[in-house]
Predict the 3D structure of the following.
Amino acid sequence: MGKGLARRIALLSIFILGLALCSRSALADPLDREALAGMIVPPYALGEPVNDKGVWTLLNSGGAEAGYVFETGPLAPLPGFSGAPINMLVTIDRDGRFLDVRLVSHNEPIFVSGLGEAPLRAFLEQYRGHSIREPLVVGTPYGEAASGSDLVHLDGVTKATASVRIAHESILAATLAVAREKMQGVASGPPVHPDPSVDEHLDWAMLVERGLARNLKVTNAVLDTAFGKTVWAHDDPEATADPDGLFLDLWAVDIGPPAIARAVLDEESLADLQRLARVAPDDEPILLIEAGRHGLVSPDFVRNTAPDRLAATQDGLPVALRDADMTVGVREGVPEGTTMLLRIDRRLGFDPTRDWTLSALAVRLHGMLKPEIGSAHFPLALKADPTFFTRSGIATALPPWQAAMVSRKWDLAALGMLLAGLLAAVGPGMRRLAEPTVLRPARLAFLALVIGFVGWWGQGQLSIVTPLAVLRAASGGGNLAVLLYDPFSLLIWGAAILGFVLWGRGLFCGWLCPFGAMQEFAHHAGRLLRLPQWNPSPAWDGRLKAGAWLSLAGLLAVAILAPEKAETAAEIEPFKTAVTTLFQREWYYVAYAAFWLLLAMVTFKGFCRYVCPLGALMAIGGFLRLRRWIPRRAQCGSPCQLCRVRCPYGAIRKTGEIAYSQCFQCFDCVSIHDDAAQCVPLVLARRKRVSARRRRAHEPAAIPLHRRGGRLFRGGSRRNHDLAGRHAWRHGACRPAGASRPCAGRRRPDRRGDHGGGGSGQPVQEPLRPQPAECRRPP
């Protein structure tokens, strides 16, 4: 016992040490000159460093300065979905045109263990040829939203919207910083923030007087003049009919400072703005109120995206605008009209205390089938009062793992409660959970929650990719930052490791694996459809289970011998298709995942039992188990085989012993063990008790006897004695004088079938014996 415990503790220590080494993995250091030079696209070459922020000059084939090369990580360390910055190498010319954008390092879970890096690299290729002066946005225009708009749309990546958006903003922030300093001569400093300590009593009239709220009016006549002498000059009949009417009546006010926000917004909208500030503290809110015909956006505009009829610039470079998707109510005295709240990310270099320009775009169409599109811009100069802002020092970024935890704190809280409930149910509450009326509905409800929340929402499907990353890091070929930067999956790994110690592999494989849960639902669907069930014989079951070990061995060999192919080899797991991308992949990946789900309808969890390499690794982790937690009886295995026959995983041997390396913790055997109606030893014991009770019930009862007139009677009234005497004589129950026992003569069977009497005044009846001569019939 002591040696076994010591062995398990040693294995657990090694495992924890491995995780500790993983946690020390940090982001890769900035590229050195040799590494940078190898990533420059010919005919360009790497020049000399410009500053200590990783900006280098770019040389053309003649050796002249042609642009700049820089990494986004040091200049714009915006935390990604994983909590760590996405580092890319950007090459631009002297006019701010992108020559190349390449991925250097990242730890985004969707691209590490989900889609792979290919979609991210394809996204970055779209920047080539575009200029930083263009208003670049990620997404697809809807309907006529792109007609006449200045926005340049880049195609995103399905299922990776957040990661791609962060990559895009990192590129813009770093490039704008270089462009302002090297091309515009404006050095970027720490961003400004609204100062909550400034508390002035303001109203709308005061805001207008101090220039904090500014207005732009454009009449229909001015609009026609803007399109004069063009093919669109007469394409707006409403403007021609009412030249003095207002096409644009736009008010703009920066409501980032709390004092200004209180002067403009009603109580409900002010509370909404404060919640927005807590969620996005780096965004500057700009309120627009438009009372003309412009409408601010096109009819096909989609909320929470970049407005297609507005644009902004600062220092000659575009400013990224985004709708805050918030309904705004204003106080009395504030102009009425169409309201819109814009968000501008200050981390991208925007400074509201310096001059910037907001432009409203007017669009006209000429023609019917394929109309020509014309546009005109009407600018409004804006500048916030520096009194309401403060410029903090350079902010110290949180460690990536802390930033990741902050960004997913609500998901982590929900997952923590889910895991705590599960541990309580399968631990102290195991017997209650295993009751036949509780187990099936409780288990299916929890597995549905695992698929929806853990799998599709939280992207918490564990994969063999993570252990392979551990192997690569151990050999010096990578880092394990994803274990820290994806705290949701890390928490599930922690629960799985705890499960190794307490139960073996079953906690994860049986309760926390989303794809395993999908297979279990497929199995129940097959039973409801009355599909024929095919299960291999015990001999073939043992042979097929070797497939999981072969899969694991093959992946380890690929990771060591051909690490660049490890990600492709890991596609043996259908997790990425069924869980990560929700079947939104190429048809052959979808067909592969669907095959295993269809097979599960006739063969219980075929992938988990016979192929899954992660399951084989979990079985190895199960050797850390410190106890035998499934209750057993001496009769289990000999003679009872019910649990072994019922076990869908083949985890019970003929001897009744549990093979914990194959146990998925379904609790079916625990339910049988505790159920007196199913467990064979309990059923047999109950039958013996019932038979014993029945035998005792048929034995004669010990009833008090008394003697009268030489005869023996059982209690009763005196007036019944004569009748009782005749009855006793007929049944041979009289006692002659001097006899030591009642007469055992022949008796007649009782009409009621009662061989022992039992009524009041009834004589004792004995088995049939020859009647002695002394016996006389009573008168």
